[in-house]
Amino acid sequence: MIPILLVGAPGIGKTAITESKYDYVEKLLTSSMVEEDIAGLIYREGQEERRTTPAFVVRLQKAVKEGKKCCLFLDEVDKGRREVVDTLLTLITHQTSFGVPKEVDIVLAANPPEWGGGDGISIPMLNRVAVVNMKIDIEKWVNWIEKKFGEKFTLIKEVIERIENGEIPLLETTGEYLERRVTSPRSITMALEAYVSMPIDEAKEIADGLLTPNVSSSIYLCFQKNKQYAHKRKINITASEVGSMFFPFRG
Known about the structure:
Elements lengths: L3 E4 L6 H7 L3 E6 L5 H5 L2 E4 L2 E4 L3 H11 L4 E6 L6 H12 L11 E6 L12 H4 L3 E4 L4 H12 L3 H12 L7 E3 L6 E3 L1 H11 L4 H11 L2 H12 L2 H9 L3 H8 L5
Parallel strand pairs: 1-6, 1-7, 2-5, 5-6
Antiparallel strand pairs: 3-4, 8-9
């Protein structure tokens, strides 16, 4: 398969979609790697210079031998060091010389510039991959959310309906540096998990750290007026004890 580059905002499911299509996915966060992580460490054997075989290559070889449909997923390639990106370009064009079996598909992922993307995607790399601009499929995400939350879905139903109606954005970003917040399907899911498992005020603290202020406030108001959620808080007397596990620094 021709290598594919998935381009999209953070948290919209680039990794999850890839994982759903394969039996085994080897995921590499290329933004945190050095050249030796991809190509192996250099050592000498007599007069010859050789390289060790990286662990991810060994795992892929094993998975292929087991008959699994495999993928090498290279995440955040736009933020990789120049020497790493250059090595990845060689890997993409000559994967078997790195020990990666020819049966392994290669999928790359990157963020666009407006969502914090870097400059690691060179023209030569773009010329060797099929670029797929990913967009959110709200219907599929809602179906996934229903399955994920199960019987607790009724507690978050109003939030989901407002997202479906466009009243709460599924993608939004604001702020700079440590004040920057990104609302995405992933961060909204994490915030909802906090609300269904923690007292409302503690959940809001988590949501404020995950979401843009606009979205965090909207979700908080939904839970404030949700009578079914209020009943859950009332009967869950020990919820504050659970919350203290998340906030050990509180006095």
